């Protein structure tokens, strides 16, 4: 099992595991909630093959549409096993012994109660365990946690059983943008366990992606701040400052209009949308607080902050609360400061420009080079291109520094997983 | 001829008009129900409905969505028509088997370990031969919920078993250990190995079947609302103006008589049928079997619909059959040359023709009253068609019986002669 290819970041959940209004995270803001729910309900049924084929045949059907259709086709598979097999077979062409890390997500609290997923986290994990039983040497799932579902000792005990004792899962997945802060006090016992047992944690760190689609997002952020953060904590003023600066002042106005016209509310600009408010949860600085308390925590910042943060492109959608490129710099700082902090290139690998920047920064910096991991963010990355096409392009780009792809995807990934692979 | 039994000619004509109108409504109601069937097939209404309802029945928020797990059970998964189309119908026996398996699996504790070579192994706990026992253990492994109580009630009400108390369980295991025998892994003791499983299966089948009966009722309600939409579609597609139809039926004796003959054949065909269940499409086809469809089978309005239908049904054999039947039905109806359809010389298209080319028929001159009459005629047709084919068949049956009671039978007339 030595020296094998590892994909450190992939997803195998199907659309049934996602919240009913999940598509609000990817459809234009003008699309009303009811329509987003109905489109997803149609996709969940999985009988969209005919429609997809029809759209494919349309003369105006362009490459971008085809990529989205590929994403839909995979996401609407009837089981997670089918999604996994699709990925596994593609990677087996590169290495028959490949190891796939599948990240589960707790989406039960990612929206309002009425829009919760049909397939709860419990059901999602049960199916994942069955996939692990079928592919014990190729599938290494991470357990998705959210302090609003389970918290404190209960959460730590639960993770202890499934990761340490039963060894079904190989790590923990955090997705703060779904509505919680990483420094939430209800996660303290979990961090203590993970630090003691060297359980790897992958945390979502990019603007956008999935986010909380609740109608009361502003209230949620305020509640979380009040509930989670001790006012005496040294970082309190930083976090509170972000909230005061960017969260809409008029909550009622936001509720009524903010979701549909996110850019047109005077003075609030981009921040009047769930997508951007949820960046408050994902902000890498939030992890400073955690790492201060648990400096030996094995933590990976997924996506390295996102491609546009990496190559500091003047991305119009990025609110400049601390300047474009700041997230990437913050992550690098933490990687150099803490021994067990990593970052992965999943999704970001779809833009070769971003890979060039990371490869350049790694050159001559062994501390950084040993802590960059390689994953693809399958199948969510399908909207950028097919898995195998993007993988080929990434290998070509990274291997401009000879052996770099092998180092990231074999050695670094293995070191990060430690005894859990 | 006995004068007291003879119907007056005006009443006879009224009856003929009513029968003709009822027959037209019946034919288009059948067509409407075919449209509903076709649409239900396209949107896979039956399988969606079943999935939604099983989701409601088997989703336990405190535990898991068991509907999702049942659908992924090999027995149910195999019922898919293709990889992504779930089953339209699940037999109660298949459901019970899959459900017992799914609940039984809940007691499994997935565990893995790494061997010396670094290979991961699943520590398979083996399959429980006693499915009743595994069902009990699976149900016990769930978190407290109403659904868990329901599962345990299936056992307590139908099976004979014993659950040892904690002390008794310990004592029994101690005794077994003293005798060198394998220990009990569970406090559950199956007291009727031979019958418990079948009893459990039957109780789950009954539970499921009762639920499916309710589902069928709701499904009919759902298709009932679709029928209303289909009625609107059919009336508009064929421009069926009931008031105009009534006027023509009053004056056109040939049309009236041919429709009455068709209606009588329809009722006779039903009497010939040996079963109680009625397929109105087959009845209508038999009743219209002798009509010449060669002349009118491809009118303008149907030609477009046929093209559209063929495009939709390109790769679907079931849908193609639906459409074939529909086309046959339309062709047979058209053979009657009914005063319906979208023609330039007819209302409402005639209203848009230039002055001077108008006919002298006052109905064909546009004014508010004629528009109101036309809209009223269309509305009456929509309401009439929404009653559905079974309603119009019953009405026809009654009218024809009344008519036959009043008309001297042919045979006796011939005998008298």
Order of helices and strands of chain B: HHHHHEEHHEHEHHHHHHHHH
Oligomer: heterodimer
Radius of gyration of chain A: 20 Å
The largest inter-chain interface, given as chain pair and residues per side, is: A-B, 31 and 34 residues
Number of strands of chain A: 8
How far apart the termini of chain A lie comes to 9 Å
Total count of strands of chain B: 4
pLDDT averaged residue by residue of chain B: 83
Protein structure class of chain B: mainly alpha
Approximate helicity band of chain A: 40-55%
Instruction: Note the main sheet of chain A.
Output: 8 strands, parallel
Q: Report, as a whole number of angstroms, the end-to-end distance of chain B.
A: 11 Å
Overview of the molecule:
The complex is a heterodimer of chains A (421) and B (417). Chain A is of the alpha/beta class and 421 residues long. Helices cover 45% and strands 10% of the residues of chain A. In chain A, helix 6 links the parallel strand 3 (139-145) and strand 4. In chain A, helix 6 runs parallel beside helix 7 (188-197) and helix 16 (352-362) packs parallel to helix 18 (387-398). Mean pLDDT of chain A is 84; it is low at 252-272. In chain B, helix 1 runs antiparallel to helix 16 (389-406), helix 5 (92-105) crosses helix 9 and helix 11 packs across helix 12. Chain B is elongated, with a radius of gyration of 33 Å. A two-stranded antiparallel sheet of chain B has the order 1-2. Chain B has a two-stranded antiparallel ribbon with strand order 3-4. Chain B has helices at 9-42, 45-58, 66-71, 74-77, 92-105, 131-141, 146-158, 166-178, 196-238, 242-251, 253-272, 280-287, 300-312, 317-334, 368-386, 389-406, 410-416, and strands spanning 112-114, 120-122, 161-163, 188-190. Chain B is built from 17 helices and 4 strands. The chains are: A alpha/beta (421), B mainly alpha (417). Chain A binds chain B through residues 1-2, 16, 45-50, 76-79, 82, 118-120, 122-123, 126-127, 129-130, 132-133, 136-137, 165-168, and chain B through 44, 47-48, 51, 55, 59, 61, 63-65, 68-69, 71-72, 80, 82-86, 109-114, 117-122, 124, 315.
């Amino acid at each position: 099992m030595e020296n094998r290819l590892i994909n450190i970041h992939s997803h195998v959940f199907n659309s049934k595991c996602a919240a009913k209004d999940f598509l609000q995270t990817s459809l234009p803001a003008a699309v009303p909630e009811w329509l987003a729910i109905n489109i997803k309900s149609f996709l969940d049924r999985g009988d969209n093959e005919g429609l997809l084929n029809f759209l494919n045949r349309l003369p105006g059907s362009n490459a971008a549409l085809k990529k989205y259709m590929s994403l839909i086709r995979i996401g609407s598979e009837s089981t997670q096993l089918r999604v996994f097999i699709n990925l596994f077979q593609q990677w087996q062409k590169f290495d028959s012994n490949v190891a796939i890390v599948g990240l589960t997500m707790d989406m039960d609290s990612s929206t309002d109660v009425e829009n919760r997923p049909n397939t709860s986290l419990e059901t999602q994990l049960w199916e994942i365990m069955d996939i692990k039983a079928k592919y014990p040497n190729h599938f290494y799932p991470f357990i998705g946690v959210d302090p609003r579902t389970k918290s404190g000792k209960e959460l730590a005990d639960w993770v202890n059983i499934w990761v340490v004792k039963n060894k079904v899962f190989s790590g923990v997945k955090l997705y703060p943008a779904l509505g919680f802060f990483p420094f939430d006090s209800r996660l303290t016992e979990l961090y203590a366990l993970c630090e003691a047992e060297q359980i790897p944690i992958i945390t979502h760190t990019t603007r956008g992606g999935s986010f909380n689609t609740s109608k009361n997002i502003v209230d949620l952020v305020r509640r979380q701040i009040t509930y989670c953060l001790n006012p005496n904590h040294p970082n309190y003023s930083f976090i509170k400052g972000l909230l005061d600066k960017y969260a809409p002042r008029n909550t009622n106005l936001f509720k009524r209009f903010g979701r549909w016209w996110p850019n047109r509310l005077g003075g609030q600009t981009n921040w009047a949308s769930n997508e951007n408010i949820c960046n408050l949860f994902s902000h890498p600085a939030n992890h400073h607080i955690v790492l201060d308390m648990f400096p030996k925590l094995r933590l990976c910042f997924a996506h390295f902050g996102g491609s546009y943060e990496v190559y500091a492109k003047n991305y119009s959608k990025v609110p400049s609360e601390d300047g474009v490129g700041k997230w990437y710099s913050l992550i690098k700082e933490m990687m150099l400061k803490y021994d067990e902090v990593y970052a992965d290139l999943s999704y970001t690998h779809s833009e070769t420009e971003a890979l060039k920047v990371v490869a350049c920064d790694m050159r001559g910096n062994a501390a950084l080079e040993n802590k960059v991991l390689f994953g693809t963010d399958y199948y969510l990355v399908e909207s950028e291109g097919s898995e195998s096409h993007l993988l080929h392009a990434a290998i070509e780009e990274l291997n401009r520094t000879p052996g770099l792809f092998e180092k990231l995807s074999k050695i670094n990934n293995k070191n990060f997983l430690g005894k859990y692979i | 001829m006995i004068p007291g039994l003879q119907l007056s000619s005006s009443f006879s004509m009224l009856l003929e008009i009513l029968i003709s109108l009822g027959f037209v409504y019946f034919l288009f109601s059948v067509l409407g129900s075919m449209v509903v069937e076709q649409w239900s097939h396209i949107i896979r209404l039956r399988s969606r409905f079943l999935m939604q309802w099983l989701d409601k029945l088997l989703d336990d928020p405190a535990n898991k969505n068991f509907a999702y797990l049942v659908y992924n059970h090999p027995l149910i998964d195999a019922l898919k028509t293709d990889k992504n189309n779930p089953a339209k119908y699940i037999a109660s026996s298949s459901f019970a088997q899959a459900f017992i398996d799914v609940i039984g699996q809940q007691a499994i504790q997935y565990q893995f370990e790494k061997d010396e070579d670094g290979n991961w192994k699943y520590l398979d706990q083996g399959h429980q031969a006693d499915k009743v026992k595994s069902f009990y253990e699976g149900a016990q492994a769930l978190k407290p919920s109403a659904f868990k109580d329901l599962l345990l009630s299936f056992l307590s009400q139908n099976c004979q078993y014993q659950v040892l108390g904690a002390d008794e369980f310990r004592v029994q295991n101690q005794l077994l250990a003293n005798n060198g025998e394998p220990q009990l892994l569970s406090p559950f003791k199956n007291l009727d190995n031979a019958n418990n499983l079948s009893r459990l299966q039957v109780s789950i089948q009954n539970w499921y079947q009762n639920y499916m009966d309710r589902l069928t009722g709701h499904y009919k309600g759902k298709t009932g609302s679709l029928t209303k939409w289909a009625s609107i579609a059919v009336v508009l597609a064929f421009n069926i103006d009931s008031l105009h139809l009534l006027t023509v039926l009053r004056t056109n004796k040939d049309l009236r008589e041919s429709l009455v003959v068709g209606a009588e054949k329809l009722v006779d065909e039903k009497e010939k049928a040996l079963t109680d269940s009625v397929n109105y499409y087959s009845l209508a086809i038999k009743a219209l079997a002798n009509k010449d469809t060669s002349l009118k089978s491809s009118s303008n309005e149907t030609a477009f619909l046929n093209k559209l239908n063929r495009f939709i049904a390109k790769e679907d054999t079931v849908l193609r059959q639906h459409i074939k039947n529909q086309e046959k039905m339309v062709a047979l109806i058209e053979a009657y040359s009914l005063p319906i359809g979208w023609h330039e010389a007819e209302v409402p298209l005639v209203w848009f023709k230039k002055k001077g080319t108008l006919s002298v028929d006052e109905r064909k001159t546009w004014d508010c009253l004629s528009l109101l009459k036309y809209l009223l005629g269309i509305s009456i047709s929509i309401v009439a068609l929404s009653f559905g084919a079974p309603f119009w068949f019953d009405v026809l049956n009654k009218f024809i019986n009344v008519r036959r009671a009043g008309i001297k039978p042919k045979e006796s007339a011939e005998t008298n002669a």
